[in-house]
Design goal:
The chain is α+β, with helices and mostly antiparallel strands and 177 residues long. It is 22% helix and 31% strand. It is built from four helices and ten strands. The strands form two sheets. The protein has a five-stranded antiparallel β-sheet, with no helix packed on it. The longest helix is centred in the N-terminal third of the chain and has 16 residues. The radius of gyration is 33 Å and the shape is rod-shaped. The relative contact order is 0.10.
């Protein structure tokens, strides 16, 4: 493990400890990490899309990334820069602090869903000129002959076109200019 990547005062304090003290410290840390309450608390503080920092267990360096998948007590993190994915226990990472969060870019907010204009029967009257697209995507123009509850009967005025029963949401008014 690279001791340069870790907090220098922490390394300096540990270098003076005996092997027995280091082993005792290891047992204490492992016991604390095994506490289910700590794991649940760590998992509850994380969410998809959150930017986190984590420790590379190979060399002890702190790395940054973004959570792209969550499991019970483990997350998949996409590392910044290298775009490498890591499967990391939730205990081995933490979200950015408030100070770091303020300096990072605002989270992406998707635009609002477009409002779909619902067309009702009240917007059409018998005799209105309307257009709609048939199953093949061709525009068909005609005159409303009859208004039903959910559809309008459209007369196209051609011998081969005949009449069509069309739902109101497919109809568009034709403006006479």
């Amino acid at each position: 493990m690279n001791s340069q990547a870790t907090d220098p005062p922490m390394i300096q304090a540990l270098e003076g400890a005996s092997s027995l003290q280091l082993y005792q410290l290891k047992a204490l840390i492992e016991g604390m990490l095994a506490d289910p309450r700590r794991g649940i608390k760590a998992r509850a503080s994380l969410h998809l899309g959150q930017r986190v920092q984590f420790v590379d267990f190979r060399d002890g360096q702190m790395r940054r990334g973004k959570i792209i998948a969550m499991r019970d007590m483990q997350a998949t993190v996409l590392e910044e820069g290298t775009k490498r994915t890591w499967k990391i226990p939730c205990l081995a990472m933490q979200g950015y602090t408030d100070a770091e969060r303020r300096t990072e870019q605002a989270p992406y907010e998707p635009p609002p869903e477009p409002v779909i204009a619902s067309t009702s029967a009240r917007e059409f009257e018998r005799g209105d000129t309307v257009t709609f697209d048939d199953r093949d995507g061709r525009a068909v123009t005609g005159v409303i002959v009859r208004i039903n509850q959910r559809t309008a009967t459209i007369g196209t005025g051609t011998a081969n076109g005949g009449t069509w029963r069309v739902p109101f949401h497919m109809l568009r008014h034709v403006l006479d200019i």
